[in-house]
Amino acid sequence: MDEGARIRFGPLLFGDSQPLIGFGAWAVGGAGWGDPGEEQERLAAIRLAVERGVTCFDTAPAYGAGASERLLGTALKPVRDRVIVATKVGPHDDPRRSLEDSLRRLASDYVDLVQLHEALERWEWQLEKLHGLVEDGKARALGLCNATAQQIRRAMEIAPLASYQGPYNLFDRDVEERELPLLRERGLAFLAYRPLAAGLLAGSYDEPPAFAARDHRAGLYWFKGREFARRRAVIERLRPLARQAGVTLPAFALRWLLARPGVSVVLAGARNRAQVQDNLAALEGPLPADVVAAVDEIVAAAFRLPRALPRANREAQTWGPRERFIVERLDGTHTAEAIAAEWTDQGAQPMVAAQVKIFADQLEAGRLAQAS
After folding, report:
1. Could you tell me if 122 and 211 lie in one domain?
2. How many domains, in total, are found in the chain?
3. Which secondary structure element, helix H or strand E, spans residue 370, and what is its range?
């Protein structure tokens, strides 16, 4: 590690109030992100992150079928006591067996944070088992990923929860409605994953990309159709702001996240040393408040929902409850995130803003809604 590197662990375990750039280790696992590149280059990316002072590394058994954990185990072994290693247990996995297998791959006796990867059926039982592993010393703290605010509240009743991890970037803001305010209120750390919208905020796509079938991005709705066009239009308006700030577009997007209240760790992925360098450029200075406000204004304008026309309200009476719920709120005052959060508050099947946006686009295409 560089002599001048400042070792900070963030609020995750040590109460540091400054947000961190962490290392999201899905891509280095070599699967689900197109051509994986040479393993030695991926290993070099992890080592450079360590040298540059990155202290939080987040992985999971599912990332490259264990390859991500094995690479981290190799790269981090010499500095294991100076970094946080977080891994996950799948919703259907046996917690003890899963974590012990992870520890073998990570070449470590413990992880700093063990997280339930998704809050699906019987998730409370899974969380109780994970808490037992913390008590056994196999993990130092317990976290939850991909859950609703209601589930986070329930999780805190079951076991001492240290953190929550969810998707967050300047496009995808569901957590701002319920989860982030709750985490700030309860003093939990928030780990933001997908900070660059799975690479879209790298700004390198002029047209909808054609990903390989095994690339998980092939199934992401924002790389297609109208949503891609909206996001690309936003990116073009952000480029001048990034140039004025003297950084690349991805570093600019990461700076925006670091400026958001309640964010503890921004998990930026990297497969090579150049990507690590670009991610860490986000730490060279804060994003001014007026620039943050400008970003928010650009995004809000691009994602303003259409108004439902009277015919939509009439026809919606024969549709399902979710569709009726959305149509009733397409009145020019609600955001997609607010509609999704209000529905989820009822305790039914959770809704996310993406579902609202897609349905609103369908209504507009069918001339049942118009731009507001």
Report:
1. yes
2. 2
3. strand 369-370
pTM of the model: 0.94
- pLDDT given at position 15: 53
Query: Is 238 within the bounds of a domain?
Result: yes
Identify the domain containing residue 319 by its residue range: 307-370
- Asked if the structure places residue 13 within a domain, the reply is no
pLDDT value of residue 229: 95
Q: Where are the alpha helices (DSSP H) in the chain?
A: 39-51, 67-76, 95-106, 123-135, 149-158, 179-186, 225-245, 249-258, 273-280, 289-302, 310-315, 321-328, 336-345, 353-365
Q: Which of 63, 164, 168, 193 is flagged as catalytic?
A: 63
- In this structure, are 114 and 33 located in the same domain? yes
- pLDDT digit string (tens) for 1-20? 333 333 344 555 655 668 89
Catalytic, 164? Answer no
- Do 243 and 354 share a domain, yes or no? no
| Measured CA distances, 14 to 7, 189, 220, 318 (Å) | 12, 11, 36, 54
